[in-house]
Design goal:
Hypothetical protein af1432; globular
Length: 198
Amino acid sequence: MDRMHIRLFELAAPFLDTRENGEHTRISYEFAGRLLDEEQGDPEVVFPAIILHDVGWKCIPEELQLTAFGPGKKDMNLNRVHEVEGAKIAGGILAELGYPASLIEEITEIILGHDSRKRAISKSDAVVKDSDKLWRYSDHAMNTNTERFGMTFRENLERLGRTLDAWFLTAAGRRMASERLLELESTYAVELSAEISD
């Protein structure tokens, strides 16, 4: 991780201390690096966008956050708030660090639609979207989401398997998610067996 990314993480940290976003962002950043090894995208856009994409959740009261994301019908207007406010916060952070106006515009436009916009506006946007969703296939997300959504491990894995085609925009992202599903099946085999026997 280069110095600028470290500094971005430092400036983003006060906005990421909610909704498990600190760890979510770190893991998504790692997936972004792996995706950029295989997919087209501009690292100067992708890395800042993934570091800052969820800073807007800080503007939503914690007791309301779970109503704005996750399985089932959710308050997408509230979810939209985190994108709009996040783009504003990100723009301020990027300007403070001296990013050129053209890069700030591209990065904040990605943040402005990273959840609500289903199609990618650029190769970089596709990488950011897929990196964000790949977190859901991490061990951290498996434990976090199983608990926060009141699911069993099996239910969570089935949900992740059903949404592969709908969620991922890049071939590498879809492949990595499929590989992670197999790894999760193996990692959580004991828990899954216990659920079946119950």
